User: Fold this.
Amino acid sequence: MKLKTDALPTLIGSFPHKDHFEATNLVLKYTPEFPLWVQLPCYPYERLLTQASENMPGVFIKGNDPFFDIEHPLFEQAQLEFYALYLDVMEGKKRLHNSKIAFSKETGKGFFSLLNAIPKTEIDLKAIKGQVTGPFTLATALKNTEGKIAMYFPQMWDIIIKSATLRALYQIEEFNKIHSDTIIFLDEPGLAGFGSSTLIGVSKEEITAALTEIIDAIHSKDALAGIHVCANTDWSLIFSTPVDILSFDSYEFFDKLILYKDLLEEFLKRGGIIAWGIVPTLNKDILAKETIETLYEKWTDQIKQINLPEEIIKEQSLITPSCGMGLLSVEESVRALQLTRGVSARIREN
Assistant:
């Protein structure tokens, strides 16, 4: 799948709204070329861990909090059924529409809202964007009853990788019913913690292999894969994968990314796309003071540090908020949407 993004806008996922229809309409208003399905964290079933681990073997819910237990008597059978489904899907013998991987009515309200809305709307649709929680983020957030993370349990680590793979393929299957081009982002905020003392023994190669496994599966369906990290990380890890789109908080962390200038330029030369998170959403006071013009000037200052023609960078760019908008007020989120579309328009008119 080839895609010319031309500095058009898209989003990260979370909204502060309580109404999926309202949030979806905002998506289609401000990012109609690359719309996504919304996640509303005010609903417990749409929070990161709960939504990402739904029906995963070994995962159980206590209150609103998922945990894993590989000693549970139901784990072995659930594991066998999961791998049977995985093999059937990867061999093209089964689809995911009615499987345990498919979103339930509780976890998939934003997903189904987008699927229902697009056919009823006249928009200049380039591609539909979906998202899954990345394997590293999920494996370091999901814990057992003793507080140990899933990353250190090989059985759970492999299930998490393959579950993310299937959830990506499920979204592609469903989106392809209404449009041929799909982008799936692996949301990896947890990679900000890679290399910390709390994750001793977790290797760069291990994470790269997991991300590559999922990206390869996405590519097998002729879709594009993105990785979103909303803080600083070891960017060489991302560049060592076959990812198509790098999504990052360029408002706060461009100075960190540009330290990997050679890798960034190689990425762009091979056709990679940069999703510039130039609209700040993690600090309400900063969001309030920025304008389309100040953010445009910040973006132009950043791209001047890359040794490639501006036109090439523009053609291989998306403009986004720096992260999700779930912590903003509804009014602040609308301002972030207006700035995102406005900065995109300012870049494209130049």
The chain has one domain: 10-264.
